[in-house]
Automatic annotation (TrEMBL):
PROSITE patterns: OMPR_PHOB. It comes from the Bacteria. Residues 1-96 form the OmpR/PhoB-type domain. Residues 1-96 bind DNA. SUPFAM superfamilies: C-terminal effector domain of the bipartite response regulators, P-loop containing nucleoside triphosphate hydrolases, TPR-like. Belongs to the AfsR/DnrI/RedD regulatory family. This is Putative ATPase/DNA-binding SARP family transcriptional activator. Keywords: DNA-binding. The keyword DNA-binding applies.
Amino acid sequence: MRFGVLGPVAAWTDDGRPVRIPDLKVRALLADLLANEGRPVSADRLIDDLWGERLPRNPLATLQTRVSQLRRALEEAEPGARALVVSQRPGYLLRGGAVDAVRFRELAARGRAAADPAERSALLGEALELWRGEPYADFADAEFARAEVTRLAEERLAVLEDRAEARLALGEHDALTADLADLVERHPLRERLRAVHLRALYRSGRQTEALAAYAELRERLADELGLDPGPELASLHEAILRQDPSLAPGRPRGNLPAPVTDLIGRDGAVAGVRALLGTSRMVTLVGPGGVGKTSLALETARALDPPDGAWLVELAGLDRGSRTGAADVVANALGARDDRVPLPERLRGKRLLLLLDNCEHVVEQVAALAADLLRAAPDLRILATSQEPLGISGEALWPVAPLDPPDAERLFAERAAAVAPGFALTGDNAGAVASICRRLDGIPLALELAATRVRAVGVHELAARLDDRFGVLVAGRRDAPARQRTLRAMIDWSWEPLTGAERVVLRRLAVPADGCGLPAAEEVCAAPGVDVLDTLARLVDRSLVVAGPRYRLLESVRAYALERLHEAGEADEIRRRHLAWNVALAERAAPRLYGRDQREWLERLDAEDANLRAVLDSAPPAEALRLVNALSWYWFLRGRVLEARRALERALARGGDLPGAVEARVWLAGFSLLTSDGTDERARGAAVRAAETEIDDPGTRAWTRWFLGFAHRGFGDLDVTADLVGRALETFRARNDRWGVAAALSVRATIARARSDLAAARRDASEARGLFREVGDRWGGLHAAGTLADVAEIAGDYPEAARLHRESLRMAEELGLWAQVSFSLSGLGRIHLLTGDADTADALHERARRLAVAQSNLVAEHYADVGLALAARRRGALDRAEGILARWLPWIRKVDGEPGLPLVLTELGFVAQGRGDVGRARALHEDALAAARRIGDPRAIAHALEGMAGATVLAGDAATAVRLLDEATALRASVDAPLPEAERGDVDRVRAAVRALTDRDARRYSDGR
């Protein structure tokens, strides 16, 4: 908690939120405690301070109420803050919290102790910035605050005088004359303040005004106090009359311009560059045009303040053909115009900083000059800004990066508010501002140019028009250099010095949508006589290409380079090259996604995702079919099934009669099953028939059967799936295709599990897992492991099931297979639910649900949601359980397969039983039993029978309930699937009810009824 008394009394939380203190007396209580600076204040004194002679009916009780209100206000703002108000005999005190007056005194003490005038001025200025008005402004007349108000006001004046003296030592006399005028008028008799003012006037060349000010002071002192000015002031007056040389300001300590706006987002960089200049005599700030190199260099130079000054040397206007121009510009900036003494000799022994700004157009001659100066002047430091390194011995580089999004948005908002008063970031415009900053790459100059347009068009229209950025960003500052007045001029400045080869590579590199690796760059940018690698390296040095694992352009540079590409007439050819490269990459990747290289090629395709999307959108029909066929398994592994379906539909709409169309229709049929309700049998059947008649290769036909069987698994008739997978397995075995055999066995294992043939499921899944391990396919391995985990769960081996799910989860996360991650999370959630840890189960199921939604995977989402419903029903949260289950009922009735219609209906029946609605419960359980028998799952049948028994016993039919339970028990025993512990409570309650009914009937019989 922070408290403020340097202005109206206020409080804030640690993160800056204001604390509302609700009542005047409560605020007065807080002010009184703050004025006593942590000392206890007696209850009697607090009562007297707050009410004086107008006491309330019960003063002590009223004070206690006000204390409680203060504690409550602090606690509501910051939990735990009520403890700051401490009851201690004989009253109360405020303990803890940061008070601005304490901070003010700490900064003042540090400032006075600082030897360096710049540091002293900065610290004292920071102390003065804490003031928001008069101290205790809303209680300044209160007796309890009067002494503290007087003391703080005097301390503030003393700090103002201290800072004025520090600024005078820094040579800021011109600014001081204006800054001190009002203060002198309000405190005309403060001699120390007058002394600083007189010195500032004299140093500014205003000797007459300084003498008049002294005469006015002498007259006021005589009239009002009967005194003469003190000895120090009198001596100063005499020195002014004599024009004593000691009063003259020191020689200029540099020529740095005063900052006009704040430097945003570069505090860490300023500190870093200062530190680097402590170990390196030359530091070059490198980065693209407009990134803020000059602003960072100026701020760093101001902070350093070397003994012989910091000197800005502007090189942007230098004629690049001149051999001696750089030395002349440096000499002029330093005021060293005597040609008889060479510049390096003049700088020998000087402890100064040269800021060589905008070196990129004359980098060779600036590099030669800098090397000469560093050798001749050992105490010299050079800070340069350039789009490329100078490349001399001893040079250290500091890359200046674009602003991070929060700083970019802050810069844009501040500059926009300067031209459009009242503009501020709000919930309505934050998205548009973020888009502008992102599309302009966080480049400060581009953001400032964009901000000038806010007044005319607003941020939403500005964001919409950035596709024409060079036509929109044309209104820079009139006082800026020509190269900084428009976005095009900014990039023209970087384009001009490029060689022919550099221009060729830069404009061609604009075609990849999100950059590219070196092999792609060498293919796309190739030209006779051009060494692409060497040219790329030079463009990276010039800050026009961003290097890393991939080469990319900032968005504005890319837009500019695309214009140049069209001007050169190369756009169509380079796009054809880019398309051919990406098609070849996708086809090279496709077979490698099924084995040991799976992870590597998934990551390679991830890196090229933006380029693959871009070329797919514009590819001719034949190339589009090649691309979608090559990328479909990648899309499947990444869980991007909807995207795959849309891409396949577009490709087939344009090339349905071209080679590759049959394969694309197979993919589309499979993805349609995976993204719909599972009833798209017509597309599946057509794809199977086409594959059987139009695909000659047996291996491809077998793969087609497997994929369509895999996609059909869980939807409708399991016999259809089993037939497709069985025929595929025969071919895979005959061809010794180990991946195919493993994939078919893995699907067959899920069919066996759905039919509760646990031995067959375990056998097939284990064999599949072993084969997948042999071929190195981790997706296949975790798919088989998931089936084994389900089998272990059904058999009651929960530790083994959890181990397998965790193993699958780890592999899925490593590969980024987020649909599989969702299933593994839900599988773990089921184990926690079955072992009685409902809270952990809920957390896992919720994570799984969010992932499934993000992947648009209905089956995974349903699996996670049912887990949440199971936990809710067992907690007695019947409304929540019913809400979740009922939402899925329409979809799952259409699926009528493995996703679990019997389970949902049975659980809804248990909800109805919990409410005592016997008729609805019985109807739901009967519906569940019919669905379970239709899909032939003994466990689902047993679960439905157990629900039926519950509804039957509620209806008073104990004999039927016993028969149903016995039938369910026999079914579970037949497939070695014992009743889970978590579900045993439902059956135990039914058996207890049966015993109660039987006992009641026996008593009735014995009573002769």
